[in-house]
C-alpha cells in the first residue's frame, strides 16, 4: 500500500512538473504574441507553424550559450542564486488542488500532491524563500547594478507580502481554514442557497489587493523595479548569461503560473464551475471538466499579467513603496475590519 501511494504521488508530481514547465515555456511565446498583437505586429512566426517551436529553440539557445562567471564574484553563490529561484518556483504548486479525485481501476486518486492544513502558510513561506535567490544572485555578482536590484527585490518583497498577508486574513475569517483544498470545496459549484459561492463575490477588495501584490511578488510590470533596464541595466541578473540567466527568467514565468493557480483557487472557485452538478455526467468526467475549468482560469490570469505588462508603464521606486505602505496596507486593514463587522452582524441576525 505504501509503495502504491509513493508511485501515485511520484506520477502526480512528474505530471504537474511537466505541465508547469510546458506552460512556462509557452508563456514566453504567448508573451511575445500578446505584445505583437497589442503593438499591431505579428510576433515570432519563423520557428515552426505560427512560431510554435520558438520556445524550444530559445531553450536550446540558452543551453548552448557561453556561461560567463565574473572573476571577482562569489562563484558558489553565483550559481546558487538562479538554482534557488527555480527550485522555490517549482515547489509552490505542491499544495494546489487541481481537481477533486479520480476513480481509476477502483482506486481513488487525489489530485493534490500534499493536502496540508496550513497550505496558505506554505505558499507564503515559499514566496518568502524565492526572493533569496534574487538577493544571493545580485550580491554574489559583485556588480553595483546587480546589488541595487537585489536590494530592491528584498524591500519590495517585504512591503508587498505584508499587504498580501493582510488581504488573506479577511478571507480566512470567512473560510475558517488555511487548507487550499477546503477553501476550494467551500466554493462548490457557483451558486448555492441564493448566494454566489466563489470568494471573489465575498472579498472583492481582498482580491484586488492580492492581485496587485502578486504582480509585485512576481516582479512583473509595472512593479519590475529589481530588473529595471532603464536604471539598472538588467538589475540582479546583469552579470548572468546562458542557462543561469534562463533559470531566472524561467522562474518568473513559473511564479506567474503558480500565482494564477493560487488566485483561481482562493477567489474563483478553483476547479469548480457553474452547474457542474447538474450535467448528469459521471464523477470522473466532472472532475476532468473541473481540471479544464481551473486551467482556463489560470490562462486568463496569465493573459492579464501579459496585458498589463504591455499596457501600463513602470512605476518609480518611490511610487512603488508609497502604494505598498500608504495605500495597500491601510486598505487591507480596513477590509479586515469591515469583514469582521459584516460577519458579526450576520451571526447576530442568524442568532
Describe this structure in words.
There is one protein chain. The protein is mostly helical and 351 residues long. It has one domain (71-350). 66% of the residues lie in helices and 3% in strands. The protein has a two-stranded antiparallel sheet with strand order 1-2. It has a two-stranded antiparallel ribbon with strand order 3-4. Helix 4 packs antiparallel against helix 5 (144-175), helix 5 runs antiparallel to helix 7 (204-217) and helix 5 runs parallel beside helix 11 (317-350). The chain is globular. The termini are far apart.
Secondary structure: elements and pairs:
Blueprint: H1 2-38, H2 54-64, H3 75-91, E1 101-104, E2 107-110, H4 119-140, H5 144-175, H6 180-186, E3 191-192, E4 195-196, H7 204-217, H8 229-232, H9 242-267, H10 283-309, H11 317-350
Antiparallel strand pairs: 1-2, 3-4
Helix pairs in contact: 1-2, 1-9, 1-10, 2-9, 3-4, 3-9, 4-5, 5-7, 5-11, 7-9, 7-11, 9-10
Can you tag this structure with a few keywords?
single chain, 351 residues, mainly alpha, two-stranded antiparallel ribbon, two-stranded antiparallel sheet, 11 helices
- Total domain units: 1
Mean pLDDT: 87
Number of strands: 4
Between the first and last Cα atoms, what is the distance in angstroms? 48 Å
Largest sheet: 2 strands, antiparallel
- As residue ranges, the low-confidence spans are none
Q: Per DSSP, what share of the residues sits in E-state strands of 2 or more residues?
A: under 5%
Helix content range: 55-70%
List the total number of helices.
11
What is the C-alpha radius of gyration, as a whole number of Å?
21 Å
State the strand order across the main sheet.
1-2
Along the chain, the helix and strand elements come as HHHEEHHHEEHHHHH
Principal-axes geometry comes out as globular
Task: Return the structural class.
Answer: mainly alpha
Amino acid at each position: 500500500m505504501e509503495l502504491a501511494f509513493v508511485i501515485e504521488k511520484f506520477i502526480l508530481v512528474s505530471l504537474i512538473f511537466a505541465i508547469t514547465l510546458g506552460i512556462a515555456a509557452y508563456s514566453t511565446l504567448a508573451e511575445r504574441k500578446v505584445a505583437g498583437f497589442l503593438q499591431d505586429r505579428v510576433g515570432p512566426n519563423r520557428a515552426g507553424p505560427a512560431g510554435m517551436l520558438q520556445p524550444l529553440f530559445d531553450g536550446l539557445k540558452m543551453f548552448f550559450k557561453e556561461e560567463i562567471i565574473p572573476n571577482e564574484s562569489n562563484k558558489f553563490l553565483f550559481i546558487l542564486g538562479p538554482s534557488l529561484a527555480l527550485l522555490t518556483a517549482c515547489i509552490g504548486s505542491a499544495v494546489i488542488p487541481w481537481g477533486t479525485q479520480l476513480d481509476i481501476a477502483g482506486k481513488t486518486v487525489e489530485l493534490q500532491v500534499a493536502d496540508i492544513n496550513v497550505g496558505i502558510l506554505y505558499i507564503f513561506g515559499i514566496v518568502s524563500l524565492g526572493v533569496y535567490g534574487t538577493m544571493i544572485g545580485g550580491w554574489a555578482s559583485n556588480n553595483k547594478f546587480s546589488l541595487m536590484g537585489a536590494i530592491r527585490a528584498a524591500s519590495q518583497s517585504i512591503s508587498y507580502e505584508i499587504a498580501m498577508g493582510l488581504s488573506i486574513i479577511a478571507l480566512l475569517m470567512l473560510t475558517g481554514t488555511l487548507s487550499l483544498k477546503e477553501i476550494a470545496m467551500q466554493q462548490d459549484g457557483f451558486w448555492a442557497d441564493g448566494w454566489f459561492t466563489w470568494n471573489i463575490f465575498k472579498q472583492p477588495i481582498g482580491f484586488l489587493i492580492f492581485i496587485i501584490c502578486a504582480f509585485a511578488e512576481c516582479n512583473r510590470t509595472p512593479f519590475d523595479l529589481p530588473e529595471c533596464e532603464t536604471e539598472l541595466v538588467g538589475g540582479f541578473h546583469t552579470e548572468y548569461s546562458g542557462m543561469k540567466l534562463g533559470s531566472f527568467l524561467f522562474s518568473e514565468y513559473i511564479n506567474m503560473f503558480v500565482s494564477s493557480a493560487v488566485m483561481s483557487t482562493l477567489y474563483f472557485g478553483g476547479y469548480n464551475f457553474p452547474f457542474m452538478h447538474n450535467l448528469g455526467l459521471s464523477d470522473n468526467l466532472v472532475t476532468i471538466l473541473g481540471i479544464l475549468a481551473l486551467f482556463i482560469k489560470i490562462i486568463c490570469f496569465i493573459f492579464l499579467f501579459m496585458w498589463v505588462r504591455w499596457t501600463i508603464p513602470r512605476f518609480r521606486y518611490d511610487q512603488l513603496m508609497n502604494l505598498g505602505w500608504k495605500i495597500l496596507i491601510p486598505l487591507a486593514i480596513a477590509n479586515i475590519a469591515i469583514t469582521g463587522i459584516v460577519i458579526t452582524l450576520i451571526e447576530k441576525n442568524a442568532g
